[in-house]
């Protein structure tokens, strides 16, 4: 035994357990043999910082959402791809509103939870893999901080190109991001500095997620300012059309297909 986690479907397992705790359906993780335990997502950063975040909010209905999530959903129009659909909280609301929505995720377990909660149209894989399926969309959602999926300077052009290949004329991307640079916490400002010295964007996080005995491989997840996003988008098929930062440091970025 090395103390290293076994690589597995971390999101899937924690969403299944969060669903079981919330509904009583399926085996629940037990503490002390009887009491259902709150499900905590463990986020490790490559400087040794460890954070825990309760997973129950992935199941929340609109009444418990943050205001920017509601504003994001109000901006949706046409055929919509929810990228990184998670437990389907956004897709379910869109279905209720009669919006044709497809949920895409790399986690088989997350899609299983979505299915059990009633999300009808689901795709397992990455956006790059989905291009070949021939489906096309008017709106792409990157919610729950999923702007992070653009990873950094290297991945951003290919990520945005894959979205453009999936786009109908006039399509939009609505992405939830967090501006990382308001903090004075030296643990974070020092990390940003170290990243820049390595040629990375300040908020280009190197993370792995853990749940129980499972872990993900290390991956990059971008937390960037709206200005940095504007720079990443320049020269791609998209333009940064709007930034709604009413809930700063959180913001909703809207990208529109250029031309
Ligand atoms: C932070 S959760 C957000 C879930 C959901 N959007 C929400 O707001 O509740 C991230 C989700 O993205 C999925 N994911 C991670 N990397 C992905 C990728 N490259 N392509 C598609 N989905 C991905 C994860 O499995 C997880 O379900």
Cα distance, first to last residue? 56 Å
The hetero compounds bound to this protein are:
S-adenosylmethionine
* Structure classification: alpha/beta
Low-confidence stretches: none
Give the C-alpha Rg. 18 Å
Count of DSSP-assigned helices: 8
List the helices and strands and how they pair.
Elements: E1 6-7, H1 10-23, E2 30-31, E3 35-36, E4 40-45, E5 50-54, H2 67-74, E6 80-83, H3 89-96, E7 101-105, H4 108-117, E8 122-124, H5 127-130, E9 137-142, H6 156-165, E10 167-178, H7 186-197, E11 204-211, E12 214-215, E13 219-222, H8 226-233, E14 238-244, E15 250-257
Parallel strand pairs: 1-12, 6-7, 6-9, 7-8, 9-10
Antiparallel strand pairs: 2-3, 4-5, 4-11, 10-15, 11-12, 11-13, 14-15
S-adenosylmethionine is lined by residues 11, 58, 83-86, 89-90, 104-107, 110, 126, 143-146, 149.
Can you walk through the features of this model?
The chain has 259 residues and is of the alpha/beta class. Helices cover 29% and strands 29% of the residues. A hairpin with a 3-residue loop joins strand 2 (30-31) and strand 3. The longest helix has 14 residues, at 10-23. It is globular, with a radius of gyration of 18 Å. The mean pLDDT is 95. The structure holds S-adenosylmethionine.
